Amino acid sequence: MSHSDLIIGAFLDDPKRTLSGEALARRLGVSRTSVWKHIKALQEEGYRIEVLKGRGYRLKGLSARPIEREVKRGLLTERFGQRVFYYEKIGSTNDVVKELARRGEKEGTLVIAEEQLNGRGRLDRSWESPRGGVFMSLIMRPNLHPTELTRLILLSGVAVARAIKSLYGLDGRLKWPNDIFYEDKKLGGILSEMEGEAERVNFVVVGIGIDANCNVSVDIPTTSLKKETGREINIIKLVQEILKEVESLYEAFMKGSLAFLEEYKELSHTLGRDVKIVRLKDTIVGRAVDIDSNGALVLRLPDGSYEKV
Ligand code: BTN
Predict the structure, then answer these.
(1) Among 118, 135, 210, 278, residue to substitute to test ligand 1 (most atoms within 8 Å of Cβ)
(2) 120 lines ligand 1 (CB under 6 A)
(3) Which residues are registered as beta bridge partners of 282?
(4) What angle do CA 156, 216, 164 make, to 5 degrees?
(5) Cα separation of 306 and 7, whole Å?
(6) I want to staple 157 with a disulfide (CB 3.0 to 4.6 A). Which of 3, 76, 178, 191 is the partner?
(7) Ligand 1 site, residue 46, Cβ cutoff 6 A
(8) How far is it, in rounded angstroms, from Cα 225 to Cα 227?
């Protein structure tokens, strides 16, 4: 535990108490100047710490930033989010997490940023990532054949939809494979990337972006959780809830359960609609009629034939 962790721990042991610099210095085994430096650093991390002249310090509010200490406090998972890399600003959390995965970082590792300067979306699009959004990426190391990966992608969408429902009561919808919609407006998206060989997955990166407290302007209708709920979204709580749902769905899936596919179909914004699928090499149109057990979208084409995407 770092000194800053110990100071926050001391405040939380007795939240209403004012702690003198001397008492904190004794508890940590450091000088009062050092305590003061830590207090300043904590204030910069977003903790509201009141300085009472001649008396000491009082914690008035925890940090609302998704820093490691706050993401892990009260987190109900065993794997996902137990290791956290936080950035105030970064190019893309997917790029960072991929590099970490290549270096052997373990499954469940989370990279989270308050702002992305080079956020990436599907099909080589960019992903606007201003402050107020959720930008998080996770490492998964599933024992899967690369052809089974779509299921994992769908599973992540279900986790986000569940989190939004349980925290805010909003019925999110999933546009295949996993754009997150609310009432025909885009609320977020997921970018999954994989590294491995023909027969074996080495790791999968699942990058989730949600318009929580920010508004982005893109060429389709969008909304934010703040707009839909009418209140400021606690990003830490949202991230923790997503991690919890990812973990429970992922563990069930790794034990062989495909129950999430039925849930995915119920959440689908795509089934029953005429859709245009833009692929890297071509575009096809048809009526979305099913999602098969591998997670592929089944289209009925205008000539009556079926094609799996
Ligand atoms: C899409 O709908 O096109 C997918 C958007 C995915 C955005 C997230 S934000 C966190 C992670 N880092 C990125 O650069 N992209 C994903």
Answers:
(1) 135
(2) yes
(3) none
(4) 35
(5) 62
(6) 178
(7) no
(8) 5
Confidence of residue 219 (pLDDT cuts 50, 70, 90): confident
Q: How far is the CA of 209 from the centre of ligand 1 (A)?
A: 5
What the block records as the tokens of 179 is 């754009």
Q: Is residue 93 in contact with ligand 1, taking CB distance under 6 Å?
A: yes
283-291 β-sheet, strand order: 274-278, 283-291, 297-300, 306-308
Residue given tokens 């962790």 in the structure block: 5
Residue type, 31: S
Query: Reduced to 3 states, what is the DSSP secondary structure of residue 15?
Result: coil
Q: Give the max Cα distance, the chain.
A: 82
- What's the CA gap between 89 and 166, in Å, rounded? 29
Element (H, E) at 217: none
Q: Does position 267 have pLDDT exceeding 80, yes or no? A: yes
Concatenate the DSSP letters of all residues of 200-233 into one string: -EEEEEEEEEE-SS-----SS-B--HHHHHSS--
Query: For residue range 269-295, what is the model confidence (pLDDT) as tens digits?
Result: 999 999 998 877 888 999 999 999 889
Looking at ligand 1, which atom is closest to the CA of residue 119?
14
Hunting for tokens 């495909």 — which residue is that? 258
Closest CA to 235 of 224, 246, 249, 223: 224
CA distance 7 to 4: 5
| 227 vs 117: CA distance, rounded Å | 24
Record the pTM: 0.94
The string over 44-63, giving b where at least 16 C-beta atoms fall within 10 Å of a residue's C-beta and e elsewhere, is ebebebeeeeeebbbbeebb
